Amino acid sequence: MNLGIAFAGLAALLYGTSLFAMKQWFAEYPSSTFLSITYTLSVVLYLPVVLASDAPFLPASNRMEALGSIFAVTMLTALAMVFLFRSIRLGEVSYVSPISKIIPVFVLPLEVGLLSQRLSALQVGGVGIATIAIYIANWQGTTLLAPIERASRSRPAQLALLSAATFAVVDVGKRLLMQELAVAPTTYVPLMFLGVAALMGPVAIRAYRPDDWWRDLPYFVVTALIIASGNHVVLLAFQRLPASIVSPVVNGQAIVAVILGAIFLEESHLRARLAATALAIVGITMISIG
Description:
Number of helices: 13
Strand content: under 5%
Shape: globular
């Protein structure tokens, strides 16, 4: 097996498990509290990777530009995570996951508008199939228009779409950081973790949290380890394979989340949501290779 595929598959497993963990362990927490604690722990857990790296921490020629860009992408990452976490709190993880992972549908028009990329027929077809995936995710065996009506009224669906759209801007920003500005992953990842924790911290101090929240610290540590590992492993995959191959595999995390939600949380409509996830990944694949 290609090592890059193995890393991408492991990243999908880690990311899918983190989505499930958000719903299973932290449904009572506000987004700000969850993110500030988890990402602070992620910084600590990722430090050994940073210390073991021999890459320069910042490019010598454009340090201020790189730092400003990292901060901008980090702010958008924090916003996207707030949308995603709240959508999981309000909705079923097996319902939210397929919708929140159609990020390439939003990346494509951004690259067309900002980076002058041209659309192929395959990519247009991929957008159509990924859109159908949202329809299937909302299908409950009623009338043909019912899924559209449900998606338009569903707060979790709206938040999941906002998350996907915001993550699309983040992905375009990361592409610029890694390629045009030559920022090392061991620079971006810890600064992103630290930035999200710092942005959420002031809000978290004033937000509600359970009186015995410290009892959940082991769960926070486990989740932080999963998130830190996922962010590192996915970069290992991108170092070995093109994004067109890595992206569809990594977005298989939605299948992991759907299955875990169905087994452990007894969420309904498993077949429809697995079908929606499969269609979303097919659409993402078509967009990636188009």
